[in-house]
Design a protein that fits this description.
Elements (H helix, E strand, L loop, with lengths): L1 H9 L2 H18 L8 H9 L4 H17 L3 H14 L7 H21 L8 H14 L6 H13 L3 H15 L5 H18 L2 H16 L2 H4 L7 H14 L3 H18 L2 H18 L5 H15 L2 H17 L3 H17 L3 H17 L3 H18 L5 H15 L3 H17 L3 H17 L3 H14 L7 H13 L1
Helix pairs in contact: 2-3, 3-4, 4-5, 5-6, 6-7, 6-8, 8-9, 8-10, 9-10, 10-11, 10-13, 11-13, 13-14, 13-15, 14-15, 15-16, 15-17, 16-17, 17-18, 17-19, 18-19, 19-20, 19-21, 20-21, 21-22, 21-23, 22-23, 23-24, 23-25, 24-25
């Protein structure tokens, strides 16, 4: 090996390039029927030759192949090398399109593996924005816009994410491209979930699921088809809208699709949303193995933000297992990690989980401080998904602190008001239970029944879920 290295380094650069290109051409000829098995070798030799066109071509193909095989670091290296070579190609619209495709593919992998706030991503993000503006709104810029939408959503820049999602729908609507249309509706639906517009989210996400269900075997493996994310976000929207059984069924399908696909990132995504849905439902019977699986996959593949989320869930599980101090410390550390990695949207939602955990562990002042942080984040980011629950938790924390019945009742009523504006029946039920319990304690059983009975009677399903069981028991006691 040392002899080979010395001999290689002793060659003139031009001679090396010639030999690499001759070798690559020979590989193309010898393995013409099985080039997919030799993309790495072809990328290696052409990238060290003077043939930039073929170097970029094979580096791109090798990167895509490595991504499909979940060899994320190899994929990042191939795509980065291809992107770096693009400026050596002759200027043209096709070159700009190729650069856009490469930057979007590299950015999607980079943020998945490394996180959203890495400073080295900023120049590439600005370049993608520049390319999209140069190329204009058309089918060719859809991947770039979708990548920018995804990044803005994760960073909780919801105004910008909504603008991008709206453009995606406008561009995709006249096209006869199911992947483009499904992705556009998924972007609009995903943004709407976090904005607290759950009915709108359901409409868009059901369109996405319907499009991809026409041939899920074809669409599931495609990198640009968000089959699993659409199912996950639809499950959340359904739970918010008061359909816990249907939400559970959709989430089970998302997990089954992820198991079928066997891509670590897709599996981690589905597990994260499933763990959160179990927490929404207060159903902790099977949450432990999911948290363990999420943690393992995230650590094995270096998914920074998913590791933070798994740590937060593990901390919450430790609290309910009898270790309040250790669990809350884990959750607090995870919040810091989410902020450091730029996952501001997940962090904003997670603040309500920490506040709820403070309530469970009687750390009332800390819980009230965290709730105020949540409200500040709602206003700064536009995230409204857990807003009603945040008001309810504020009321419960105020009650636990003592002699704050009037303020607590106001917080519960505000939670109900927000939930009704969002059509969030599940949040409304939970807030109505808190208010009815307070009114009952104050000797106002009729007002308590009036606060709880209408929303409880509304539910068409999920009568065996913890919230509805609690509501039924409270109504019986009031009778």
């Amino acid at each position: 090996a040392l002899t080979q290295e010395v001999a290689y380094d002793s060659m003139l650069v031009e001679r090396r390039r010639q030999i690499h290109e001759i070798t690559a051409a020979a590989l193309e000829e010898m393995f013409a029927d099985s080039l997919d098995d030799h993309l790495g070798e072809l990328a290696h030799h052409y990238s060290r030759s003077a043939n930039v066109t073929k170097a970029v071509h094979y580096l791109k193909l090798a990167g895509q192949q490595a991504g499909r095989r979940s060899a994320y670091q190899d994929a990042l290296d191939y795509l980065k090398n291809a992107t770096d070579l693009v400026p050596r190609l002759p200027p043209s619209r096709d070159r700009d399109l190729l650069e856009l495709e490469l930057r979007v593919a590299h950015g999607a992998l980079f943020t998945a593996v490394r996180a959203f706030a890495m400073p080295e991503m900023e120049p590439s993000i600005r370049r993608v924005e520049e390319l999209c503006e140069q190329l204009g709104d058309s089918s060719v810029t859809l991947s770039g816009l979708f990548g920018l939408w995804s990044l803005n959503l994760a960073r909780a820049r919801l105004d910008e994410a909504l603008r991008m999602a709206t453009r995606l729908v406008e561009i995709a609507a006249p096209l006869h491209d199911p992947v483009a249309l499904g992705s556009a509706h998924s972007a609009m639906g995903g943004t709407s979930v976090w904005l607290g517009k759950f009915r709108q989210a359901r409409e868009h996400l059901e369109q996405t699921v319907a499009i991809f269900d026409r041939d899920v075997a074809q669409f599931l493996p495609l990198q640009g088809a968000p089959v699993i994310p659409a199912h996950c976000q639809l499950a959340w929207a359904l739970w918010m809208l008061g359909h816990p059984t249907e939400a559970n069924s959709v989430m089970a399908r998302a997990l089954a699709l992820a198991d079928q696909l066997k891509r670590p990132f897709s599996t981690a995504f589905a597990l994260l949303y499933s763990v959160a849905l179990d927490d929404f439902r207060r159903d902790y019977r099977s949450i432990g193995p999911k948290i363990d699986a999420l943690d393992e996959i995230s650590r094995e593949n270096g998914f920074a933000s998913w590791m933070d989320s798994a740590t937060l869930s593990l901390g919450r599980a430790r609290i309910f297992a009898g270790d309040p101090h250790g669990g809350l410390e884990m959750m607090t550390n995870a919040l810091g990690g989410l902020r450091e990695h730029g996952a501001e949207m997940i962090r904003t939602y997670s603040l309500t989980l920490v506040a709820d955990s403070c309530l469970a562990t009687d750390q009332i002042e800390h819980g009230l401080d965290v709730i105020e942080q949540a409200f500040e984040s709602f206003d700064a980011t536009g995230v409204r998904l857990p807003e009603a629950e945040a008001y309810r938790l504020k009321g419960e924390l105020l009650l636990r602190r003592g002699r704050a019945e009037s303020d607590a009742a106001g917080a519960f009523r505000r939670a109900i008001e927000v939930a009704r504006m969002q059509d969030a029946k599940s949040w409304e039920l939970r807030a109505a239970i808190s208010l009815a319990r307070l009114l009952s304690r104050e000797g106002q059983p009729d007002e308590a029944r009036l606060a709880l009975s209408p929303v409880y009677q509304w539910f068409p399903e999920g009568l065996d879920t913890p919230d509805l069981l609690e509501g039924a028991a409270l109504l019986r006691s009031l009778a």
